[in-house]
Every structure is written in structure tokens, then in C-alpha cells.
Design a protein that fits this description.
Helix content: 40-55%
CATH superfamily of one domain: Glutaredoxin
Radius of gyration: 24 Å
Order of helices and strands: EEHEHEHEHEEHH
CATH class of one domain: Alpha Beta
Strand order of the largest sheet: 3-5-4-6-7
């Protein structure tokens, strides 16, 4: 039996060849599992983002995109998306329900708190005097916060109730947008 000595800092340890191979195999398995976990996380993130962007919501990934969108005239709803299972699983469907309402913001945008940190920080800078919260909804008019729905408001309700909260804010602050009027832009 071959014996190896590995200096682990304070004193040398003795390993047989079989235990060294076993250690290497376990280490390689851990690396492979770690890579798989990262890949699965990336797939999950893309699914969570897609659940929102397929509604026509504009994804803001940089502070510059946030500034360009949130400083424009009119109403903008910002959805701070996250991987949160409970509240996120309520907020995303609620947004989909609220988007069917006739009164809605001129622009609906999203930042992803778990990924695009700089964009999220910049968006939150527009939510004056509000603590960070994700998921959350912030309604701005002419670049100023007029309504906020925090995670604590979301996680104790169902999607329909949160959609009703969004719709109430839309009715109060947004213009009615004709649904499928049949008109083509420029005609």
C-alpha cells in the first residue's frame, strides 16, 4: 500500500492511495454537481424573466436603461422581479391579470433583483423613502413614485387580490387604453 503525506497546514496527514482517489472522485462529483446547479439556476432565472417579458414587459438590465425609461413623461410601472418562490409566484401571475385591464401604465418595465443588481439599485433610487423590497411594484408618474406595493403586501394575498391592488392603482393614476380597437398606427 502506498502512503501519501499531504501537508494540511499544521501537521501532515497520511492518506492511502485508495482514500486519495476516493477524495479526488468526491471532489470531482462536487464540481460537476455545482456546475449542474448553476445551469439549473440559470434556466430557472430565464423562466422567471420570460414569465414577465412575454407579457410585453420591457426588461431593464442596466442603470442607463432604467434612467431612460423611468425619467420619461407619463406613467411607468416597475416590477422588481425575483426568484422568491412564494411572493414571486403570486406577483408574476398578478401582473399578467392586471395587464388585461383597460386602464394601465404607458410603460411596464421590470428589473430582476436577483441578477441585474445595478439596474435594480438604480430603479430603487426612484422609489423615494421606500425600503428595498422584492418582488414589488412601483408606479411612477413623470419619474415620481405615486404608488408602491411591497413584498409584504403581496405574500399575504393571492394573485387575483394583488391584481386588484394593481388595477386600483391603474384606475387612479393611469389613462384608459383602448383594447383591440382595430385601428392601425398611422391610419
Amino acid at each position: 500500500m502506498t502512503i501519501f503525506y499531504i501537508n494540511g497546514g499544521k501537521k501532515a496527514r497520511r492518506f492511502s492511495l485508495s482514500s486519495k482517489i476516493s477524495y479526488i472522485v468526491r471532489y470531482q462529483i462536487a464540481i460537476v454537481l455545482s456546475i449542474m446547479e448553476i445551469q439549473m439556476y440559470d434556466i430557472l432565472i430565464e423562466q422567471i424573466k420570460s414569465e414577465v417579458t412575454r407579457l410585453g414587459v420591457k426588461e431593464l438590465r442596466t442603470p442607463e436603461e432604467v434612467d431612460a425609461t423611468l425619467t420619461q413623461k407619463g406613467t411607468v410601472l416597475v416590477f422588481v422581479n425575483s426568484v422568491c418562490g412564494c411572493a414571486g409566484g403570486i406577483a408574476r401571475p398578478a401582473l399578467g391579470l392586471a395587464m388585461k385591464h383597460s386602464a394601465k401604465p404607458e410603460v411596464v418595465a421590470t428589473v430582476f433583483a436577483s441578477g441585474d443588481r445595478e439596474a435594480t439599485m438604480r430603479a430603487r433610487s426612484f422609489f423615494t423613502n421606500m425600503p428595498p423590497s422584492s418582488p414589488s411594484f412601483a408606479l411612477l408618474r413623470d419619474g415620481k413614485l405615486v404608488h408602491m406595493i411591497h413584498r409584504s403586501d403581496i405574500e399575504i394575498r393571492g394573485p387575483q387580490e394583488v391584481a386588484s391592488m394593481l388595477i386600483a392603482a391603474f384606475d387612479k393614476y393611469c389613462a384608459t387604453v383602448p383594447q383591440n380597437s382595430g385601428l392601425v398606427a398611422g391610419h
